[in-house]
Specification:
Layout lengths: L1 H49 L11 E7 L7 E7 L6 E7 L2 E3 L12 E9 L17 E4 L4 E7 L4
Length: 157
């Protein structure tokens, strides 16, 4: 009988060890599942910020004047606001120094963003400084409001 008790005691210990091992595996499985779930949630949240969103093309009013540095208005010409990546532009004729931009005949104004200002007119422009997005140094930012700009050109430079 003493041998049976030792054998049973050994089995009890073995069963207890198996239960402990199963319990640890279950704990590790839950912990692993929590880690994987948390990591997936963080990656999904990060992806929302990294995926490019479509640009908002809602137009906001853009008007203004084009003048020389001495305040003399440019009588006629064309003004363009061009996005730095050259993907979007708004254009207007300059009449008596005044302009009102549009991206199409239906969309008066310009979407929010930074723009390079290009001006073509009869003013002296010795270096072609204002003639293209590559050479202009005039930069404006269109905001979600009525935008009014005074564009000053220096014919001497």
């Amino acid at each position: 009988m003493g041998a049976d008790r030792r054998y049973n005691a050994g089995m009890d210990n073995s069963i207890q060890e198996t239960q402990k091992t199963s319990s640890r595996r279950w704990q590790f499985s839950i912990a692993g599942l929590l880690v994987v779930t948390t990591a997936a949630a963080l990656l999904a949240g990060l992806a929302v910020w990294l995926i490019p969103r479509p640009r908002d093309y809602t137009c906001h009013p853009v008007t203004g004047r084009v003048v020389l540095t001495d305040g003399t208005p440019i009588q006629e010409g064309v003004i363009e606001f061009v996005s730095p990546d050259l993907s979007l532009f708004a254009i207007s004729e300059i009449t008596n120094g005044q302009f009102q931009l549009a991206i199409s005949s239906d969309d008066v104004g310009c979407p929010v963003g930074e723009y390079l200002v290009v001006v073509s007119s009869a003013i002296p422009n010795p270096h072609g400084r204002y003639d293209s997005p590559e050479t202009t140094d005039i930069v404006v930012v269109v905001k979600r409001k009525k935008n009014e700009f005074v564009i000053k050109l220096d014919p001497a430079e």
